[in-house]
Write a structure and sequence with these properties.
The structure is a homodimer of 267-residue chains.
Chain A lengths: L19 H9 L6 H12 L1 E4 L4 E3 L7 E15 L5 E7 L4 E2 L3 H4 L5 E14 H10 L1 H25 L4 H16 L9 E3 L4 H8 L3 H13 L3 E4 L2 E4 L4 H6 L24
Antiparallel strand pairs in A: 1-6, 2-6, 3-4, 3-5, 3-6, 7-9, 8-9
Helix pairs in contact in A: 1-2, 4-5, 7-8
Chain A binds a DNA duplex (30 and 30 nucleotides) through helix 8.
DNA sequence: CGGAGTCTTGACCTCTATCAAGTTTTGTGG
DNA sequence: CCACAAAACTTGATAGAGGTCAAGACTCCG
């Protein structure tokens, strides 16, 4: 989503981060032609918020005030279901817009908190309105981004349809790795999850235990290696293979079919 | 979504349907002030497609050509997962826009087919572009609709996080009943599902068998009654109660834990 | 009335949630 | 830099929920 460019920003270089100009430029589009708007762009890129780990950006139900562009770090959006168990609705990674859905209802949905120290650009609703009326292309671009977000969430639904925990987990890791990719020189094969296992599990409707078990299982087969939140995919496409089969080994679907269901590769 | 008004259209009155003018008016907004655009509106409301049960509107990957507004009937969007099992990504009910996500990528996602005889208004991409450039309010409205759709899908994710099949099913029925409500005089307490159990199950990542079992279970408790696809909710809020508890019958969550958690209806 | 498709019911078995310890990692203060 | 405490993660045992296969009942149509 948006234009992503590996960041080397002038300011605080503690964390790898997006070049905010590039991303915002993607949103502003034609507005940039106008020298007058350069000024605004400059203001937007300076107008930032930073959050410590665990700090909250917005709470559930707060009225829409601004769209945020995540520059560095990672966030999560959570709710609490009626029975009290925590639910993770989404994660947010550098280069992504946060708060789009609040454009529809006028209120933020869920509690948005930082998973790690994060930096964000703030695009105030007033500025957004200003820009949108002055430059039609801005709204066109926003519409495109929102539509893309709808598509992303539709694919997320697909992901959740994988009944099997193993499939969901593999798909989610691919998804997250893809979104993190920008920041990693190694592409998909190596990445660091910013969130706890419990968050990942809650995102997928699983328990941390199940999540852990499958990861260890894959590791025991040599497909991946993990060390805490650090991941490395040893067998290229291993995740894809797992993700694409609800059916275990290319072996049986069910009882009375074939003996050793080990559900694994030779190992 | 959109403005919904119970329909009494002049044309073919076989099926209860939305008043297309009202819905389109919600999209077009200010454009309507312009007498010139009335003409376009007239054209859009006439420009319709109708589909027989099972017929397809668009296929996966087709390039974006038009946005559709469903006037009557019901559609589903499906994909096939890599292992060949069918997945239902979404249902579409009267008054809803179809194809928004294709605005982002330029291509439709999934196979869109009719669940029952359906009628749709066609808003060609060219017309859309025309309108959008002439009337900024149109794009603003579309952005709002897209953002709302993002929110809807975020809540859908929440729904899927209900691990328990019973909870998912109850939430989904509430969701669908709500979207169907416009057409039913009895509100939420009585409705007819347009889709087969198998589709509903595939939408939720369940099997038809499990779906059926839970429905019959609720029926045996007198909470609902069903006859084929016809539903009636006998105990008001029964679905809400089911939906809000992962915890079964006021009994235990698990062995050795808690005597009576209540939280259930009288059995 | 018959036949196809849809829905229900049953038996069985796998998978995942749950509870309960361990173990490792992370963060903090000495 | 080490020691300690608090999280986070892993591992194990167990049972309940849901998937799978199979067959029967019901519906809808022609």
């Amino acid at each position: 989503m948006g234009q992503r460019v590996q960041g080397t920003d002038g300011g605080n270089g503690e964390v790898p981060s997006m070049c905010p100009r590039c991303v915002l430029a993607g949103i502003l589009g034609e507005a940039l032609q106008d020298p007058d708007s350069r000024q605004l762009l400059a203001r937007l890129t300076q107008d930032k918020t930073s959050l410590g780990c665990g700090q909250t950006l917005r709470r559930d139900g707060e009225v829409f005030q601004a769209l945020y562009m995540l520059r560095a770090g990672a966030l999560k959006t959570t709710t609490v279901s009626e029975d009290g168990s925590p639910q993770v609705i989404d994660f947010h990674f550098p280069g992504e817009l946060i708060g789009l859905s609040a454009l529809g209802t006028g209120r933020y949905l869920g509690l948005i908190t930082a998973l790690s120290p994060s930096a964000l650009c703030v695009i105030r609703s007033t500025d957004l309105e200003d820009l949108s009326t002055r430059y039609p292309g801005v709204r066109k671009r926003l519409l495109q981004l929102a539509a893309r977000e709808v598509g992303r969430r539709e694919r997320m639904h697909q992901l959740m349809l994988g009944t099997r925990a193993e499939v969901r987990l593999a798909l989610a890791l691919l998804n997250i790795a893809g979104r993190l990719q920008v920041l990693s020189a190694d592409g998909l094969s190596r990445f660091r999850l910013p969130m706890a296992r419990a968050d990942l599990a809650a995102y997928l409707g699983l328990t941390p235990e199940t999540t852990s078990r499958h990861l260890r299982n894959w590791e025991s087969k040599g497909w991946i290696s993990t060390r805490g939140r650090e991941f490395r995919v040893e067998v290229p496409d291993a995740l894809q293979v797992i993700a694409s089969r609800r059916i275990p080994d290319g072996v049986s679907v069910n009882h009375t079919r074939l003996a050793g269901i080990g559900s694994g590769l030779p190992g």
